[in-house]
Task: structure prediction
Amino acid sequence: MSTAGKVIKCKAAVVWEVNKPFSIVEIEVAPPKAHEVRIKILASGVCRSDEHVLSGALQCGECSACKHPRGNLCKMSDLGVSTGLMPDGTSRFTYKGQQVHTFASTSTFTEYTVVHESSVVKIDAAAPPEKVCLIGCGFSTGYGAAINSAKVEPGSTCAVFGLGGVGLSTVMGCKAAGASQIIGVDINKDKFPKAKEMGATECVNPLDFKKPINEVLFDLTDGEGVDYSFEVIGRTDTMTAALASCHMNYGTSVIVGVPPSASEITFSPALIFTGRTWKGSIFGGWKSKDAVPKLVSDYMGGKFVLDPLITHTLPFDKINKGFELLRSGKSIRSVLVF
Ligand code: PAD
Ligand code: ZN
Result:
């Protein structure tokens, strides 16, 4: 039966208030308008950014960021302003006739969603959705931070702060780029075995030391500091610590973790005056529409693995369990299947 032009009723996970669990309810999904696509969701990962209410990478191909060779944060994306609406200022979702907001212009915790054409890519039909969904955000973010944003070189030294799904992908990116020393930093030592499996040469827990973690990292690199450091947690104190951990003259530190909203950092200008570079990275610096199909082919071609990142696969209606696992630090990535 064709659903073209008709409303589809389906299950969706909705939060009605901040800090409240998801409720699975029946919503109405309106047909797509011009330049939009209605999509049946097969699988979706659970990310820390969902907790901070963020994510979503789009590529319209027309704006200044899309046209610039180094740009990748499309102005069409809902990241800067976060309206919870489609680019035309409305939503395709209703619950008993009442408008339900969309999330990061995508909304994937629903059986059906409507997205702008700038958020859609065609991928290899043989690719397993319950694995390659990670390429839509977490994996590509971490891996690209090393490959594109830092441009890690063979033989270089790296430190990755935060060994969740995104941080482990950064470790994989550093390894793929040929780094000779990759130091994982996390306050949860349960993350260390997997980090080593993914390429970390050593792991340190800042809580095991009296001195600041940047001094510990200098000790581990013959007093030089690392060539590249990555903050993949989303805390201002670790952003500054990661900056201070890289080489005082030619070190580069990349912020990947999403900063808490309305936060500010106070730091000594001497940290960058001596030559360090401090930069941020959104979606690993990839232009999403160009990169996602290619990354899926690379995965299918065995260029990198995703399985070790997926610790739990849950039916969609167990979404709250997926978030509990994330909050307790017991999962790397939970994938919801529909
Ligand atoms: P996660 O919660 O799975 O991992 C974070 C890790 O950091 C955990 O292992 C924690 O134990 C560890 N940690 C927490 N506090 C500290 C600390 N003080 N010192 C050291 N380690 C600590 O998160 P994730 O991997 O899903 O996401 C990581 C960040 O990346 C998060 O801020 C998320 O919002 C962000 C992200 N950014 C983008 C982007 O485009 N920039 C995309 C997707 C995710
Ligand atoms: Zn654009």
Notes: The chain has two domains: 8-120+306-337, 139-282. Residues 138-150 form the longest helix (13 residues). Residues 47-49, 52, 54-55, 137-138, 141, 161-167, 185-188, 191, 206, 232-235, 238, 256-258, 281-283, 329 surround PAD (ligand 1) (CB under 6 Å).
